[in-house]
Design a protein that fits this description.
heterodimer; A: 287 residues; globular; B: mainly alpha; 72% helix; 1% strand
């Protein structure tokens, strides 16, 4: 019993971080048809900026805000720097965004050096707390709670607000949305900024759990891409379900069958895609 | 579409490359051996990516599986290296043939992702396989096969280079033939208009699967060549970054042209080896190169001759449109 509680909490922590990352990725993908492989690099960049801010000011909240802001600025620069016509083919997307990912992570190596960094959780959340018979770090519990709150907020904005309606309209039919007088280019920039900010925020929030090191950006990117495709492109609810599922499968698999940890994670992914090529809750085809 | 139309060009190129050991030293001959291997994988992948229009981010799986299959046969079951090479290729192709009917149901980025997951499964098996697969350390100590003749020693750098060149030439020749055959042309048809091909009466899924298997088989052949060159196979040969390198070679070279991806695959390896030796910031240069390739040369290396011609003639033929299977119609 203890084992299952503990591993479930571990899985939910991973799932929470994955959701923050994948929510931005999936909306950008759904809206602009861009698979942004530089998303992981934005995550790492935000994390390192947050680390420096936390070192200088000692404030974790400030660090999260700074990481999100820095990643958003970089994200908008990337989005504006390249005309979308270049990105219409998936080949060029992969080439361009992976190239940018290499450049950004190498720049991080240049500015921050190669030693892995660890950020301590904020003071009030450092201890552990008993839950269902196991002691679990408070900070991780906070992450799980925060991801649920974020999911609800994003869902409400997405489904119930005017802004959400505009973005959804652009996802479903870009030309028609433009014809209705929606400034599609502004929506694109705003969504890209929000997605990048979420990635940067995740970098800082994840730093006390995952640490910060070069190479991490591709590990998390791989999982985030899987979450996006399994959840269904452009679907926030799908991303939430898939994040938690991937987090849990990963945690159980690693604990029960450590020698098969990638097998247990990716075989279900392949099976889900074969049964539902559009992902769990996807409305448009990926291909 | 520019395919290597004339086998004479291919043979002339091979003969010219035979001179490499005479002109350069051991270092460059070894590097050229690897360049041939990486170029060959990219060329094989082009059948799937450029012709059939399925972007795969899992080609390293077939490259690595063949290497592991042969290495395990030699080290664990004491098989003759030639026989082990055949076993390795068969293992890789068998897995490809089993997975192909499932994978080709996907298109575009879903295909890309499912191949990524497929590659990660094998990477995971190799790294977690304990002493059987050597885990993170891989399997060192694989000896090269031998012809049993004194004048062609595969243990020597030059002898192995000529062997690799021979294998590469044969594979390139076969792939160019396949590309020009009615089968190859039907793949282009599937890429351009799947519905029409189905209506005409082609079994689209079977042809997709066949092109998948062909790309996998050529990847497997070069996986074996790489295994014997290094005397080692490790999880690095199953890494998705290697798959990305193969896919990007195809794109940078010019998808659907065969010779472009071959040049890009070999060239990227030489460049990477050279720059890695100079600075630890080589990903920056590689990344910059990728970005530059998209912005400055969207048609890939293969579009350079057409670009040069049209510039010379001013009114000459425009460069061929690169192959872009758009994500959404």
């Amino acid at each position: 019993m203890r084992f299952w509680v503990f591993q479930t909490l571990n899985g939910l922590t991973t799932g929470a971080l994955l959701f923050f990352l994948a929510s931005g990725l999936t909306v950008i993908f759904g809206l602009m048809r861009i698979l942004n492989l530089a998303h992981g690099a934005l995550f790492l960049f935000g994390g390192y900026v947050g680390y420096t801010v936390a070192e200088r000011t000692g404030s974790f909240v400030l660090a999260v805000l700074a990481g999100a802001f820095a990643a958003a600025v970089l994200g908008v620069l990337i989005q504006q720097g390249f005309s979308t016509s270049l990105l219409r083919s998936p080949f060029n997307q992969v080439l361009l965004t992976l190239g940018l990912a290499f450049i950004i992570s190498n720049a991080i190596l240049y500015f921050w050096g190669g030693t892995p960094k660890l950020l301590r959780p904020p003071e009030p959340l450092r201890g552990s707390r008993e839950i269902l018979g196991v002691f679990y770090p408070q900070y991780r519990l906070m992450l799980i709670a925060l991801s649920c709150v974020t999911a609800v907020i994003l869902y409400l904005v997405w489904e119930r607000s005017r802004l959400g309606a505009i973005v959804r309209a652009c996802v479903d039919d870009r030309e028609m949305a433009a014809a209705m007088g929606i400034r599609v280019d502004l929506v694109f920039a705003a969504v890209f900024a929000i997605g990048a900010a979420l990635a940067g925020m995740t970098g800082v929030l994840g730093a006390p759990v995952l640490g910060l090191s070069i190479g991490l950006e591709f590990d998390v990117l791989l999982l985030a891409v899987v979450v996006v495709v399994v959840g269904g492109i452009g679907s926030l609810s799908g991303a939430f379900i898939a994040s938690m599922a991937v987090g849990l499968i990963d945690a159980y698999g690693k604990a029960r069958f450590p020698e098969l940890s990638y097998f247990t994670l990716f075989v279900p992914v392949i099976l889900i895609l074969l049964v539902r090529p559009r992902g769990l809750l996807g409305r448009t085809t990926v291909g | 579409m520019r395919i290597v139309r004339d086998e004479r060009i291919l043979i002339a190129g091979a003969v010219l490359l035979c001179a490499v050991p005479l002109v350069f030293g051991n270092y460059w001959t070894g590097l050229m051996t690897q360049a041939l291997i990486f170029g060959g994988v990219a060329l094989g992948l082009d059948i799937l990516v450029g012709f059939t229009g399925l972007p795969s981010l899992g080609q390293a799986a077939f490259f690595g599986l063949a290497g592991y299959g042969a290495a395990i046969s030699i080290l664990r079951y004491d098989l003759n290296p030639w026989l082990a090479a055949v076993v390795g290729i068969l293992v890789s192709v068998a897995i490809a043939v089993a997975f192909a009917p499932l994978a080709v149901r996907m298109r575009g980025l879903a295909f890309l992702t499912i191949m990524l997951a497929f590659g990660q499964v094998w990477w995971g098996v190799a790294t977690r396989g304990g002493s059987f697969t050597g885990g993170e350390n891989g399997l060192p100590g694989v000896r090269r096969p031998s012809f049993g003749v004194s004048w062609w020693d595969l243990e020597s750098t030059n002898g192995y280079y000529v062997f690799t060149l021979l294998c590469t030439t044969v594979v390139c020749f076969l792939l160019a033939r396949i590309a020009r055959s009615p089968f190859g042309v039907s793949l282009i048809g599937i890429r351009e208009n799947e519905t029409r091909m189905t209506t005409i009466g082609y079994h689209v899924a079977a042809r997709r699967a066949a092109s998948f298997a062909i790309a996998a088989a050529s990847g497997a052949v070069f996986g074996i060549l790489s295994l014997f060159f290094n005397g080692y196979v490790g999880p690095g040969s199953l890494d998705w970054r290697l798959s990305a390198q193969f896919l990007l070679s195809v794109v940078i070279g010019g998808a659907g042209t065969l010779w472009g991806p071959f040049l890009a695959g070999g060239g990227l390896h030489i460049l990477k080896t050279y720059v890695t030796g100079q600075t630890q910031y080589w990903p920056m240069i590689l990344g910059g190169l990728y970005v530059l390739a998209v912005v400055a040369l969207p048609g890939g290396i293969a579009s350079i001759p057409a670009l040069a011609r049209s510039r010379r003639k001013l009114l000459g033929s425009r460069p061929k449109r690169p192959i872009d299977p758009a994500i959404s119609e």
